[in-house]
């Protein structure tokens, strides 16, 4: 029988049992996560360089909400709901682009500026007491953090620097050319697994040398003995120095001396934003887990480089292909089979493999992540909210 929330919260890490399996498929718990975690979370929208000119926009969806991120003619960034204030029609259906003029609703041609203000509405001059200032699209909270543009549906959410103290410095230290990065490629994959199943898989090294050939390949590119997993309340890092004996990676020659910055680096920002740099890849990857329902998620793979798209180093191109065609599918298959297993009548709770040293194969980051989920659902002491 599953532990009570209070009993689960009181466990010692070294002998703790995992979250009960229902947390990974129960629709009621998922709805609670939607309201208590994601509706007040910071969501990565894009790199600031994707909004590098007036009218440039990116549209992001979370559940049934859609948000426009856009730069206006004065260079200011804005975020607002992707909905016309007349009859509720969605305004922009493309993921990204450049709006050269106003944003025109395709239904009745209401037109908005890049700041969400209504500019014109046909026949409004004939309507009693119609004031365009009354129909501005409601804004959405926006913040630029470590080169990324984030949005939050809660206007009173804490500032990202308060929530993630030290995280921006960690990203900039690992990726010095962060401000010069440009989007190379972005792919969305729907995975039939709970969002936490996917996150759990990404934040432990226990399976690296055990689960599949491409994970073994990744372990061979790093000094696995130096693999460190650290948590800082609402954010966490994991990574390792490069294997200094490596001469090729992802089937491509490295072609230069190994440098300190060639290691493996990952950083996660609660609850679902991950940024990483594969060994020798010379590019930053984004790994966004976007929940759809209790047992389906979107995995958004983004790739950013300071090199022009048509001048990417061979090893960078190879690393992107390898992630999309080899390691990514291998991980996704683990997500799918885990989700199926969590439904088994023969399983409810397992054991976190956490050693006293918090070693490179310890699952302490998984426990920390689960504690953040549990706290959001049940409060600090595990009492039912």
Describe, in plain words, how this protein is organized in 3D.
- The protein has 385 residues and is α+β, with helices and mostly antiparallel strands.
- The protein folds into two domains: 5-40 and 178-378, Alpha-Beta Complex (Naphthalene 1,2-dioxygenase Alpha Subunit, Chain A, domain 1); 43-152, Rieske [2Fe-2S] iron-sulphur domain (Rieske Iron-sulfur Protein, 3-layer Sandwich), CATH 2.102.10.
- 23% of the residues lie in helices and 26% in strands.
- It has eight helices and 19 strands.
- It has helices at residues 5-9, 27-36, 160-163, 167-174, 195-202, 213-220, 314-342, 364-378; strands at residues 43-47, 56-62, 65-71, 77-81, 96-98, 103-104, 111-112, 118-120, 141-145, 148-152, 182-191, 228-232, 235-240, 248-249, 252-253, 264-269, 273-277, 284-293, 296-305.
- It has a seven-stranded antiparallel beta sheet with strand order 11-19-18-17-16-13-12, sandwiched between helices. Strands 4-3-2-5 form a four-stranded antiparallel beta sheet, with no helix packed on it.
- Helix 5 (195-202) packs across helix 7 (314-342).
Overview features:
Rieske Iron-sulfur Protein, alpha+beta, oxidoreductase, Rieske (2Fe-2S) protein, 23% helix, seven-stranded antiparallel beta sheet, 26% strand, 8 helices, 2 domains
Could you give the topology of this structure?
Layout: H1 5-9, H2 27-36, E1 43-47, E2 56-62, E3 65-71, E4 77-81, E5 96-98, E6 103-104, E7 111-112, E8 118-120, E9 141-145, E10 148-152, H3 160-163, H4 167-174, E11 182-191, H5 195-202, H6 213-220, E12 228-232, E13 235-240, E14 248-249, E15 252-253, E16 264-269, E17 273-277, E18 284-293, E19 296-305, H7 314-342, H8 364-378
Antiparallel strand pairs: 1-10, 2-3, 2-5, 3-4, 6-7, 7-8, 9-10, 11-19, 12-13, 13-16, 14-15, 16-17, 17-18, 18-19
Helix pairs in contact: 5-7, 5-8
């Amino acid at each position: 029988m599953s532990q009570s929330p209070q009993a689960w919260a009181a466990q010692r890490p070294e002998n703790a049992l995992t979250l009960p399996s229902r947390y990974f498929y129960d629709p009621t718990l998922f709805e609670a996560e939607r309201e208590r975690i994601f509706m007040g979370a910071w969501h990565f929208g894009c790199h600031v360089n994707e909004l590098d000119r007036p009218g440039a926009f990116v549209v992001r969806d979370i559940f049934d909400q859609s948000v426009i991120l856009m730069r206006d003619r004065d260079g200011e960034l804005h975020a607002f709901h992707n909905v016309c204030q007349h009859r509720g029609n969605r305004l922009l259906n493309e993921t990204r682009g450049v709006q050269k003029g106003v944003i025109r609703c395709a239904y009745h041609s209401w037109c908005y500026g890049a700041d969400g203000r209504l500019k014109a509405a046909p026949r409004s001059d004939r309507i009693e007491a119609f004031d365009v200032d009354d129909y501005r699209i409601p804004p959405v909270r926006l913040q630029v953090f470590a080169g990324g543009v984030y949005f939050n549906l809660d206007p009173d959410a804490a500032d990202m620097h308060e929530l993630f103290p030290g995280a921006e410095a960690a990203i900039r230290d690992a990726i010095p050319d962060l401000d010069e990065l440009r989007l190379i490629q972005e792919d969305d994959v729907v995975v039939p697994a709970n969002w936490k199943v996917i996150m759990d898989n990404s934040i432990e090294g226990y399976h690296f040398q055990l689960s599949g050939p491409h994970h073994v390949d990744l372990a061979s590119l790093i000094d696995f003995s130096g693999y460190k997993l650290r948590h800082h309340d609402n954010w966490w890092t994991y990574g390792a120095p490069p294997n200094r004996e490596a001469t090729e990676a992802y089937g491509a020659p490295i072609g230069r001396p190994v440098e300190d910055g060639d290691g493996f680096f990952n950083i996660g920002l609660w609850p679902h934003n991950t940024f990483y740099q594969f060994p020798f890849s010379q590019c930053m990857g984004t790994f966004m887990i976007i929940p759809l329902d209790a047992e389906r998620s979107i995995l958004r793979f983004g790739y950013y480089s300071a090199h022009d798209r048509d001048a990417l180093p061979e090893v960078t191109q190879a690393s992107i292909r390898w992630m999309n065609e080899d390691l990514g599918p291998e991980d996704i298959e683990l997500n799918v089979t885990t989700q199926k297993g969590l439904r088994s009548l023969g399983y409810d709770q397992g054991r976190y493999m956490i050693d006293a040293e918090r070693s490179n194969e310890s699952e302490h980051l998984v426990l920390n992540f689960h504690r953040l989920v549990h706290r959001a659902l049940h409060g600090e002491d595990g009492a039912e909210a």
